[in-house]
Amino acid sequence: MYFRHLDPARAAPAPAELSRREFLKLTTLAGSGLTLGVLLPGCAPGAHSGAQGSTAQGPLVQTFLRIEPDSTVTVICKHVEAGQGVYTGLPAIVAEELDAAWSQMRVESAPARVPEYGNLAFDPKGSVQGTGGSSAVANSWMQLRQAGATARAMLVAAAARLWSVPAAEIKVSEGVVAHASGRRASFGELAAAAATEPVPPQVSLKDPASFRLIGATAARLPRLDARAKSSGTQQFAIDVMLPDMMTAVVMRPPRFGATVASFDAARARAVDGVVEVVQIPRGVAVVARDMYSAKKGREALVVSWDESAAEKRGTAQLLKEYHALARGSEALKVSEAGDAQGQLRHAAHRIEAQFEFPYLAHAPMEPLTAVCRLSPDGAEIWAGCQFQTFDQMAAARQLGLKPEQVIIHTLAAGGTFGRRANPESDYISEVTSIVKATGGKYPVRLIWTREDDITGGKYRPLNVHHVSCGIGRDGAVIYSQRVVGQSILGGTAFAAMLKDGIDPSAVEGNAPEQYDFEHTHVSWSNPKVGVPVLWWRSVGHTHMAFSKEVMVDELAQAAGQDPVAFRLAHLTKHPRHAAVLRLAAAKAGWDQPFAGGKGRGRGVAVHESFGSVVAQIAEVTVSGDTISVDRVVCAVDCGTAVTPDVVRAQMQGGIGYGLSAALHGRITLTDGHVDQTNFHQYQVLRLNEMPKVIEVHILPSDNAPSGVGEPGTPPIAPAVANAVRAASGVRLRTLPFDLAAARREHA
Amino acid sequence: MPVKLTVNGEAHELDVAPDMPLLWALRDHLKLTGTKFGCGMALCGACTVHIDGAATRSCITPVAAVAGRSVTTIEGLGGAAGKAVQEAWVSLDVPQCGYCQSGQIMSAAALLAGNPHPSDADIDTAMSGNICRCATYVRIRAAIHQAAGTLPAGAPAAQG
User: Fold this and answer.
1) How distant, in Å, are the alpha carbons of A3, A75, A534, B53, B96 from that of A131?
2) Residues 131-150 of B with CB under 8 A from A
3) Per-residue pLDDT tens over the stretch A616-662
4) Co-location of A348 and A414 in the same domain
């Protein structure tokens, strides 16, 4: 996702303005047992030094961590764990500064509460809690280092007091506090005493040179969630079982923008197990005692829809209109340098290209699911929430509560890729509106079927790019691009991020941002379409990186230069790009002739997103109209690699996710109806298509950590397209790749 | 009429519609939630269980079809192959979001129980019905090879 400067005014009522009194009340409501300290938004965590920790057996409790008498250190994670490894990465940061042993680390989900659990990358005041923009580790970095160092200092102070030795003589290592005199204590033995120490106003953080748990060359820290996720015991929202809970499915409009005109629930109500059928703002809900009954009830439900305001265009019509917009003059200028139009007329080499990118569904393996129950004080929600603050506000609006009366239990999410973070909180609003419509008589579990998921909108936007580029007689690169695609941020709480009407997430990662080209012009058209769109793993970079890296490859060929050498020559102002490109090229043996044989080729791409730069070299085999990706060499600069094996996993997974879109991903519409319903039509990458070899090389760095959840995705599709062109001469400019169609088009 | 079946060695009588998919009988009525719903059409493998030892998609298997048969879910997975797979999964940090992993593990355990030392092609055949959207496929393949390495050569491994 793309967030830089969120306007909290649009997210009213602004939770940042909750008073301290309300915090304490919320704490009581949450019943979490945590005692929260005074917090300044976005600042170091406060520590509690009150009565609760002063007993001999008590824990040391802070906002972000808790040290129990049994020496376990529990990190309170403000971000959802959706596979990206945050349940391992955040504890690693704390363990490093605390000098804990990895085996004593635990993790649990934070309550939904701002500003203390707000995402500082969205807004430095912490007014919104949420996970996105590959920001979890980056925005927690200093916060959790300070939390760990503060707790460490308090443990040391307690030991110094108890042992009557100077604090400076005390050492902490692997969870043991020790003094040269031979005195030793575990964290647990000191926790209660440490809790009575004053919170140091300032603590010094480690020199990165002395990191022992984190960094590019650190040993693998086992994931804290691996065992639960290898034994079926990890709890997801779909696994929540509450007494008397009912299960609901929702019949939603067949076209986007349609609404319920009327419905006949007689047959649905007659289905064994169906309890109620109720209308909600987004459709008609069938509530039943189990999922099977709910589904059968929905099949028997008859709904008439008012489609007067519905989107009725199909993909073919939209593409026609998008190409017309790409050629037309109705566009906003994103950036301009030099004289692209003038130089193109006299260019030594000139390339014109048109690209098409389809709508894409996220299709996380756990379909959208949420459980809601009314309580005497408000309501509780269980879900893999990615946007707790928005979800809390949406639930409160539906239920007539204050946001602080809505307790959110953030559970592990069965994937999200952006889908569970949407400003209107679609699935949370649905479950709360069902609870409201059924009078709160019972807890409700809402489950989306896979068909609901694939046809439910919130897609990566359809995009058309027209590029005119070339090389001038003086060797200067000329690059002009028109991007046509719906705005994701416009009309949402994020609308304030639009600058001069331009949605930065629509054009992020464009060529002038990433190469030092001399003459550039980028413009954007925002078609009005009724298909709901959303950020999809790496957002605008999903399409912008593709046209950029494919065009750069063709420019290199036009210039008669090697693709890596050509890129390096135009990356003099982008040293991080150049460094990862050199690293990937060296590891892939790029300077050696490619011993490919017939139908084999290799291609390269480099792209920066979410603060990280990734280069990938793909080796492919083209056999008939089939593309096999055999090997990918990936180099990444993500600043400090907190948990390098998670970085490797995210690069592997990001490559797989991008490859899925390159080879298969496509949502199309016919007369406004989505054509795909399940994985037989919306095909995704399977194990037999995954490259057998993916090498990930992490550039050592002392810089602050930057994103890893998304940056692995953008480069793979262009790297493969460039490899296919090297192997077969066919230019792939439409996604997903269709070699036969591309051959016909470019014959 | 109640359906009688054995799940993880325990006999159960379920008073549900005979055409209810085994998946929902396990999850909603026996509260065995380790088996996951992913597609409802046997396209993704998240719901994989063993029926008399064979990997089966529970989302399209009517509960009546397993009357009198033995069902094993992730909660009851045992045997040398099952344990080897789970340990390899942990030791290589295979899971990301983890949602598909019960199904992946059940498919992998069934593969190794019948073929303790599978080739890459064998793994492709056995595992391509299990979708992982996190695409941790490289580690799934590696973990199956690692698990195979811990099993005795030759005889198929016993399975729980």
Assistant:
1) 10, 17, 15, 41, 16
2) 131-141
3) 999 999 999 999 999 999 999 999 999 999 999 999 999 999 999 99
4) no
d(CA A376, CA A612): 47
Is A2 within a domain? no
Nearest chain A residue to B99, by CA: A414
Are A328 and A296 in a shared domain?
Answer: no
Q: Name every chain A residue with its beta carbon within 8 A of the beta carbon of B72.
A: none
Segment A255-303, tens digit of pLDDT: 999 999 999 999 999 999 999 999 999 999 999 999 999 999 999 999 9
In sequence order, the 6+-apart residues with CB closer than 8 A to the CB of A499 are none
Contacts of A220 in chain B (CB under 8 A): 93
Number of domains composing chain A? 3
Q: Which helix (H) or strand (E) holds A405?
A: none
Are the C-beta atoms of residues A97 and A103 closer than 8 Å to each other? no
Q: Are residues A298 and A406 in the same domain?
A: yes
Q: Are residues A299 and A330 in the same domain?
A: no
Domain containing residue A563: CATH number: 3.30.365.10
Domains and CATH numbers, chain B: 3-75 (3.10.20.30), 78-150 (1.10.150.120)
Q: Final residue of a domain: which of A183, A205, A229?
A: A229
Chain B nearest-CA distance from A737, in A, is: 19
Among the partner residues A84, A232, A238, nearest to B74 by beta-carbon distance: A232
Q: How many CA atoms lie within 13 A of A545 on its CB side?
A: 31
Arithmetic mean of pLDDT, A58-82? 96
Q: Where does the pLDDT of residue B44 fall: very low under 50, low under 70, confident under 90, or very high at 90 and above?
A: very high
A345 CB neighbour count, 10 Å cutoff:
10
| Residue A3 is assigned to a structural domain of this protein | no
